[in-house]
Amino acid sequence: MKLFFRLVFIFLGVSSLAGFLGCNRNPVIDEYTFVVTGDDRITPKEDSAHPEYNTINEYQVKRLFKEVSEMKPLPKMLIMNGDLVLGYTDGDTVKLANELKAWIKLYRESPLVNTSVKLVAFAGNHETCEKIGSGKIASAADERTFVREMKDYIAGDNGPHYTGFKPGTDSLMSDQSRLTYSFDFGGDHYVILNTDAVARESRIPYHWLEKDLKQARDNGVRHIFLFAHKPAWSTEYKTESGLDDFPANRDSAWDIMEKYNADVYFCSHFHIWDTVHPQKGKTWEVVCGNAGAPCPKDWIGPYYGYTVVKVYSNVDITSMGRDLDLATYTDPRDDKATMIRAKFTINQ
User: Fold this and answer.
1) Predicted confidence (pLDDT) per residue in 256-291, tens digit
2) Which of 235, 303, 271, 308 is nearest to 43 (CA)?
3) On the chain, which terminus has fewer CB atoms closer than 10 Å, C or N?
4) Fold classified for 32-346
5) How many CB atoms lie within 10 A of CB 38?
6) In whole angstroms, what is the distance from residue 24 CA to residue 245 CA?
7) 164-200, pLDDT tens digit by residue?
8) Closest of 316, 235, 303 to residue 274, by C-alpha
9) Rounded CA separation 179/195 (Å)
10) Which pTM was predicted?
């Protein structure tokens, strides 16, 4: 009986979020906003005043939640692009679960939880991978832990399933249905992509993606937004590799995005803010990995913040940020105001 009630509770929770996001119907909203950012994890901080948060940039996350809660008008969603916590727990899924629970606690104690803003969070390599030798290898146990702990902030379950190695498929070696998925909202289509699935690290399931984007266009969506942890294309301040580890897979996925006229691929992983327009098609890459992780020392004028996306017939993208000191990046800095750092428009 207890199991029955737990399953009912989980179903209702997912259904409630799915209902808000318009999975069953997708009426056009003439104008609305959402916020996206990623990478707020830090390296361990032994002298933390709150040891439970020693893998999270506590000050920056709290400030993010507070500032989003005070936006006028309120955005419809806050989308977090992975690397919420340090992870890499050497297979200790209890430790990973506790790190994720600490992150959730910050949210639930913030003013944002009492607003209408819906939180959507997905995994980065720090949540799904383990350091093995010189590589970062995705773990099915870590994937399951993330899905279990973050279930209230996962907005869909229509992603691809395990296929095993099979030509003509994405050869998925674990269930990705709640790590890669899509949903509709406001007349627009949102796609979440796990860029570090088991045995498919730094790759996108582009066979699934093509079917999903084709259906979205057949349904008459206005805009298509994609969200992933790893960048498809390098920037001037590249600090580690992204999808360029497997360029054939990256190119196939990007060709599909452009084929279906996707607007933006939002990603993180690089702890910077930058934009790339790699090909002649419509699709832009926006790197917004500056939520609180340590920034590269060669990023001139580094800042922490978030990206505000205004959606209407066009798409306005605004990077909001506040200065930081690279040497003391976890320290509170109430003296640093958040202001506009970059802005551009993608025309319909």
Assistant:
1) 999 999 999 999 999 999 999 999 889 999 999 999
2) 271
3) N
4) Purple Acid Phosphatase; chain A, domain 2 (3.60.21)
5) 32
6) 37
7) 999 999 999 999 999 999 999 999 999 999 999 999 9
8) 235
9) 9
10) 0.93
